[in-house]
C-alpha cells in the first residue's frame, strides 16, 4: 500500500459502499470483487490517539479539512475545464456538507496519482450558483468528469475511491 | 423570519428528486461561511441524537462528518429558520426551506431512512458507527480547524 495512504483502521467499510439508486448513477457497476482499498474512512481511532505508524498531526483536524485540489470558479471555468487539453474532474461541494469532506480526501489522492493525465478541481456550489445550475447539480457531493469540454460522466454521492478510479479510466480510454 | 412559499404544491416530485420550484430571480448573495450560533448547534445536536434513537439509525464512524452536517443544519436554521439539508444544492434556499421537502428529517429519510448526508445511517450501512450520541465538545473539536 502506498506510503501516502493514511493508516487504515478498517477497509471493510469500503467493500460494500453506500449504494442506493438514490445516491448513485452507477450502482450497476458494483461490486467489484474485493478491490484493493485505500480510501481512509476511519480516520479517528475509537479511543485514544495512538495509532501504529500514525502521523504526528491531529486526526480531528485532518478529518474535516478543506480540499487540497484547487478551486475552480465561474471566472476560470472556461479556461480550466472547457478548454483543457486533458480530461478534467470537478467535485461540486457545499460549505457544510459533511460527506463532501470524505470525497475531498479521495480527490486529493486522485489528483496526485493522475497528475498530468487528469486535472482535478473543486467547486463550491454555494458560491458558483450559475455553474451548479448549468450542470443541474442537486445533491452534493457530486463528481463530474469532462473531456474535450464536454461532461461525460457523473458520480453522485460518497463512493469508495475505486469507484471514481473506474469512472476516470473509462473516460481516459474513450 | 417569514418564509416565502413560492411553489404551488409539492406535487409528485418525489420520484425524480427535482424540486418543483421554478427558478426564481437569482439571489446572488454570497454569504461568508459564518459559524452557526451555539444555540442552534445545540438544538440540532439534540435533535440528531433523538432522531437517531427514534429511527434506529447511527452516526457515521467519522464523527467529523456528523459534526459538519449538524453545524450545517444549525447554519440553515439560523439563516432560513429551518434546518434545510446542507448536502443539497438549491436554486432558492428560502423557497426550499418554506416548502419543506428537504428540511431535516427530509422526506426520503422519513419514508425510507435515506440520508445521503450520512447523518443518520442504518446499522447495516458500512459507514455506520455504533453511536447515537455526540457531544457539543466533539462537534467543536472536530470542526475547530474549518
From TrEMBL, chain A:
Keyword Transit peptide: yes
GO molecular function: protein-disulfide reductase activity
Entry keyword set: Disulfide bond, Electron transport, Redox-active center, Transit peptide, Transport
A GO cellular component annotation in the UniProt record: cytoplasm
Pfam short name (any one): Thioredoxin
PANTHER family on file: GEO12009P1, THIOREDOXIN M3, CHLOROPLASTIC
Protein's UniProt name: Thioredoxin domain-containing protein
From TrEMBL, chain B:
A molecular function GO annotation: ferredoxin-thioredoxin reductase activity
InterPro entries: FTR_bsu, FTR_bsu_sf
EC number: 1.8.7.2
SUPFAM superfamilies, alphabetized: Ferredoxin thioredoxin reductase (FTR), catalytic beta chain (SSF57662)
Ranges in a coiled coil: none
Reactions listed under catalytic activity: [thioredoxin]-disulfide + 2 reduced [2Fe-2S]-[ferredoxin] + 2 H(+) = [thioredoxin]-dithiol + 2 oxidized [2Fe-2S]-[ferredoxin]
Pfam families registered for this protein in UniProt: FeThRed_B
Keywords of this entry: 4Fe-4S, Disulfide bond, Iron, Iron-sulfur, Metal-binding, Oxidoreductase, Redox-active center
Superkingdom in the source lineage: Eukaryota
Known cofactor(s): [4Fe-4S] cluster
Family in the record: Belongs to the ferredoxin thioredoxin reductase beta subunit family.
Quaternary context: Heterodimer of subunit A (variable subunit) and subunit B (catalytic subunit). Heterodimeric FTR forms a complex with ferredoxin and thioredoxin.
Chain's role: Catalytic subunit of the ferredoxin-thioredoxin reductase (FTR), which catalyzes the two-electron reduction of thioredoxins by the electrons provided by reduced ferredoxin.
Protein name (record): Ferredoxin-thioredoxin reductase catalytic chain, chloroplastic
Amino acid at each position: 500500500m502506498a506510503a501516502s495512504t493514511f493508516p487504515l483502521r478498517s477497509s471493510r467499510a469500503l467493500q460494500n459502499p453506500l449504494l442506493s439508486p438514490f445516491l448513485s448513477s452507477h450502482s450497476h457497476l458494483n461490486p467489484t470483487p474485493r478491490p484493493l482499498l485505500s480510501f481512509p474512512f476511519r480516520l479517528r481511532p475509537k479511543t485514544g490517539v495512538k495509532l501504529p505508524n500514525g502521523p504526528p498531526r491531529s486526526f480531528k483536524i485532518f478529518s474535516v479539512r478543506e480540499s487540497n485540489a484547487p478551486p475552480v470558479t465561474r471566472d476560470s471555468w472556461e479556461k480550466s475545464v472547457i478548454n483543457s487539453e486533458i480530461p478534467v474532474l470537478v467535485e461540486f461541494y457545499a460549505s457544510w456538507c459533511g460527506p463532501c469532506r470524505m470525497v475531498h480526501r479521495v480527490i486529493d489522492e486522485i489528483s496526485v496519482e493522475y497528475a498530468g493525465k487528469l486535472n482535478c478541481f473543486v467547486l463550491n456550489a454555494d458560491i458558483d450558483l450559475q455553474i451548479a445550475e448549468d450542470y443541474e447539480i442537486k445533491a452534493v457531493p457530486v463528481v463530474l468528469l469532462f473531456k474535450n469540454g464536454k461532461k461525460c460522466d457523473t458520480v453522485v454521492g460518497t463512493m469508495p475511491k475505486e469507484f471514481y478510479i473506474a469512472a476516470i479510466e473509462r473516460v481516459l480510454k474513450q | 423570519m417569514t418564509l416565502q412559499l413560492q411553489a404551488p404544491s409539492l406535487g409528485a416530485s418525489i420520484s425524480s428528486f427535482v424540486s418543483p420550484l421554478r427558478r426564481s430571480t437569482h439571489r446572488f448573495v454570497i454569504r461568508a461561511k459564518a459559524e452557526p450560533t451555539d444555540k442552534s448547534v445545540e438544538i440540532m445536536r439534540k435533535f440528531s441524537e433523538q432522531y437517531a434513537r427514534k429511527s434506529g439509525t447511527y452516526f457515521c464512524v467519522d464523527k467529523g462528518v456528523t459534526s459538519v452536517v449538524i453545524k450545517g443544519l444549525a447554519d440553515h436554521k439560523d439563516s432560513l429558520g429551518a434546518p434545510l439539508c446542507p448536502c443539497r444544492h438549491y436554486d432558492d434556499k428560502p423557497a426550499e426551506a418554506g416548502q419543506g421537502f428537504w428540511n431535516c428529517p427530509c422526506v426520503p429519510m422519513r419514508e425510507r431512512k435515506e440520508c445521503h448526508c450520512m447523518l443518520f445511517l442504518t446499522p447495516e450501512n458500512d459507514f455506520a458507527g455504533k453511536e447515537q450520541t455526540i457531544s457539543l465538545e466533539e462537534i467543536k473539536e472536530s470542526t475547530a480547524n474549518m
